[in-house]
Known about the structure:
The structure holds 2 protein chains of 2 kinds.
Chain A: E1 13-16, E2 21-24, H1 32-35, E3 41-47, E4 54-56, E5 61-66, E6 72-77, E7 82-89, E8 99-101, E9 108-109, E10 114-118, H2 120-125, E11 129-136, E12 143-147, E13 154-155, E14 161-167
Antiparallel strand pairs in A: 1-14, 2-3, 2-13, 3-11, 4-10, 5-6, 5-9, 6-7, 7-11, 8-10, 12-14
Chain B: E1 3-10, H1 18-31, E2 34-39, E3 42-45, H2 49-53, E4 62-68, H3 71-83, E5 87-91
Antiparallel strand pairs in B: 1-4, 1-5, 2-3, 2-4
Amino acid sequence: MESLKTDYKTETLTLCAPCSGRLCGLETLSDPVFREKLLGDGLAVEPDDPEDGDIVAPADGTILHVQNTAHALSMQTDGGYELLIHMGIDTVSMNGDGFHVYAKPGMRVHTGERLLHADLNRIRRRGCGTACIVLVTDGAEGRVFTPRIPDGTPVRAGKTPVMTVTAVKKP
Amino acid sequence: MPIIKGTITVCDKNGLHARPAGQLVNMLRSCGAAVTLTFGDKTADGTKLFSVMALGAGYGDAVAVTLEGELTAAEKLSAFCRENPAFSLRLEQNGDEGRGSGT
């Protein structure tokens, strides 16, 4: 099994935008799993250029796992946070069609490095959502998620810091 | 602490992707038990989302579950699988079966 750090994290994590577009609140997404933060808290960006489907690393870290349907992957940040990067809503049903993954498990990635490419027009034609979602999924308690910019703000992939995550040290 | 074993069958046609995996992991975290899932030659910590998704279990696949905790944890797992159409659970019946009076 993977040797992950499991202690509470005290390092501050800054999440950058995973794609270019506009920041949107998780609560605006159509999938209740994201809307109700069932998998974890985080951020979502709605791409605004249908020709730009590049999804990049929102932080420095290591790729843990790439879904075989190519629309989602996990990574661990250098500070020990586990992230899920999920491209689109209901895109699991596309079974990899319209997605190309560059990331591989074990690969070191830096903020802004391309992880996968999504064909946004194809996603829309299939009736799926195109928001890219980044969540902290390790479920540790005591996390504080602080947005750095308001919803609706234009963001640039890998360039715009969107959210700060801090953790309370275990007593 | 009792060890409960069983088999979870994935009934979501898209397999164990983020949504059902997240629901399962959330429930397992709330059980306060050590949970190991095994599928093929892969083993996952049932409380870690990426680990469960990395099993790569598809529609109709049977994932072995080993739960080390209180019997209430098995009851929670049973109730969860009854209510969630993405999963069906069969617990091994050895001595203490993981079913109580329910909720």
